Amino acid sequence: MVSPKYHVFVCASCRINGTQKGFCHSKGSVALIQKFMEEIDDNDLTGEVMVTNTGCFGICDKGPVVVIYPEGTWYGNVTEDDVETIVEQHLIGGEKVKDLVI
Ligand code: FES
Q: Which of 9, 15, 21, 24 best tests ligand 1's pocket when mutated (most atoms within 8 Å of CB)?
């Protein structure tokens, strides 16, 4: 398996027992995961970008939280509309979306 160029972690507020409870989840983070998958598919980035849902990052008041590696960029208050911007500007263009960085 080839390592992806980018790994996108989306907080889905997963708890250790598998339930999804918490701030990011209540603010629609699961829909963000779906939106990332759609944008990655639409832009032929499958294989270059991996998306993983995660548990709480501990900064719930900034949620929904998205973290992108290898840079270790943390984005906060991410909306579905922001996903397209992140994909175009960060994952394709290689530039951070400064307004969303936390
Ligand atoms: S639930 Fe997402 S950062 Fe805490």
A: 24
